[in-house]
Amino acid sequence: MSRTENVVAVILGGGAGSRLFPLTQERSKPAVPLGGKYRLIDVPVSNCINSNILHIFVLTQYNSASLNRHISRTYRFSSFSTGFVEILAAEQTRERPDWFQGTADAVRQILPHLRSWNVKTLVILSGDHLYRMDYRNFLERHSSTNADVTISVIPANPTDAGGFGLLKTDRDGRIVEFKEKPKGDALESMRVDTTAFGLSSEEAERRPYLASMGIYIFDYPKLIELLNADESAVDFGGEIIPAAIQNHNVQAFLFNDYWEDIGTIRAFYQANLDLASPLPKFNFFDAESPIYTRSRYLPPSKLHSCDIDNSMVSEGCIMNGVYARNSIIGLRSRLDIGVRVEDSIVMGSDLFESIDEIRDNLGTNTPHIGIGANSVIKKAIIDKDVRIGRDVRLVNSTGIETFDATDGSYFIREGIIIVPKGGRIEDGTVI
């Protein structure tokens, strides 16, 4: 029997995504653009497809319209396949009048939608992580240990460990203790010898903790048992997993490769810019395990008299006399002569403006969608469909850490300037 037979994946779309605001002002976390042409949701969905897991539900309840649109336009399986990627938005019923209250409650509420799929194994994933994993190895570990629950873990250093759920295992990899984001002495008590998981002595000394990646495999009947045992338990990490360790076979699966939780502005910014480096930690150029996204059939980008290095340029861009360093230039970006972009993410636009529309904008002093002549963009995230005028300087020269413009035209988070989707910055503005 195939290891992926009777396996269903559930991707948790996350809550309101407040840590990624204002990128989540009008969209859910999984719909946030990534790497110039992808969206965050494409990563776990592609991992599933590459692992031959083709029954995929995506759970969401906040700003789900753009995510719905992306899923419906992108993931269309053959009519000879039973595969699907389907959005399950939070819904109120007579039995459950509340929205999703947490990760476990979200899964509990969608169980009726799984009844017809003869589920034996449920894979629960997060929608805001950047990594490449063959889930078949994860499933093999779950099957070979006859586990009720298997948690994917990653070795962590002391600096990062306090921000995760940490666990300890016995010699066979069975989890015997779990603590959610411990501090102080509680953190020290969770140190383990990670050489038992194949790390070298030097690497084990540097990363002496096992951190939960927040992705799980459940034996489906055991999951229902755990969810029904305490209906007040709404979270996997804080409640369901600690309870399961007491009476069930809960195993660890070690993942020792690149993995990044990109649920914050800083993590999102750094992970994106790393994609443009000569040797990125996450490689989109992997023909054996591609990351899928929507096919847009855009024309090749046109670059005239440009000086671009350590950057990624997506399809459909028009760039004239542009200087760019360590940056991501997204779909349909239009950058005029003299523009300088450094250490920034320009997400591009959803539509092309016609020549007539651009000409009409000139008559009203409205900047076209894109970045106007002689503007300078440094350490910034420019969301989609933004209009930036001429001679604009977005450089945060005074080093402000946090700021919200009263008119909502821009925000600063951790020193990074963010212009939200559809924003407008007038000619000559200096930030």
Describe the structure concisely.
The protein is of the alpha/beta class. Helices cover 22% and strands 27% of the residues.
Describe what you observe in this structure.
This protein has 2 domains: 7-275, Spore Coat Polysaccharide Biosynthesis Protein SpsA, Chain A; 302-425, UDP N-Acetylglucosamine Acyltransferase, domain 1 (3 Solenoid). The chain contains 11 helices and 31 strands.
β-strand percent reads 25-35%
Largest sheet: 7 strands, mixed
Query: What value does the Rg take, in angstroms?
Result: 23 Å
- The shape is globular
User: Which spans of ≥5 residues are poorly predicted at pLDDT below 50?
Assistant: none
Overall mean pLDDT score? 91
- Please name the CATH topology of the largest domain: Spore Coat Polysaccharide Biosynthesis Protein SpsA, Chain A
By CATH reckoning, the class of the largest domain would read: Alpha Beta
The CATH superfamily of the largest domain bears the name Spore Coat Polysaccharide Biosynthesis Protein SpsA, Chain A
Strand order of the biggest β-sheet? 5-4-1-6-11-8-12
Structural class: alpha/beta
Number of helices: 11
**If classified by CATH, what would the architecture of the largest domain be?**
Alpha-Beta Complex
Number of self-contained structural domains: 2
State the end-to-end distance: 60 Å
- Number of E-type strands: 31
Helix content: 10-25%
